[in-house]
Amino acid sequence: MMNPWAGEVALVVDGVERRCRLTLGALAEMEAGLGDGGILALAGRIEEGRFTGGDVLAIVVAGLRGGGWEVTARDLLTADIAGGPVAAARAAAEMLARAFAPPDPP
Q1: Which of 8, 32, 99, 102 could in theory staple to 2 by disulfide, Cβ–Cβ 3.0 to 4.6 A?
Q2: How far apart are CA 31 and CA 27, in angstroms?
Q3: What is the CB-side half-sphere exposure of residue 91 using CA atoms within 13 A?
Q4: H/E element holding 63?
Q5: What is the pLDDT at residue 66?
Q6: How far is Cα 103 from Cα 106, in angstroms, rounded to an integer?
Q7: pTM for the predicted model, two decimal places
Q8: Once rounded to an integer, what is the mean pLDDT over residues 2-9?
Q9: Which of 38, 33, 86, 88 is nearest to 63 (CA)?
Q10: For residue 105, what pLDDT is reported?
Q11: Average pLDDT, stretch 56-67?
Q12: Domain extents for the chain?
């Protein structure tokens, strides 16, 4: 079971439920690969609904790595994500939200 208070989000990859979490290290690694604008620009694109598949992939990879799975973007290019791109985008948005704000109380 995922812990939203720890910023965890579940994503099923190739039939296995994986823990995703944007740790400080995962965020720093992701930001290094984003180039201009970094995480703030990425968050703005997502908030405005103008994100790209590459944005989603970057967040998902960072979250999976932060959750303890040593995965690369190349590994996910052929992976089966339950729910497809929509589920991946939803998980990416949820990870960002949980990384920067506590979840609502139960």
Answers
A1: 8
A2: 6
A3: 31
A4: helix 53-66
A5: 95
A6: 9
A7: 0.87
A8: 87
A9: 88
A10: 67
A11: 94
A12: 17-100
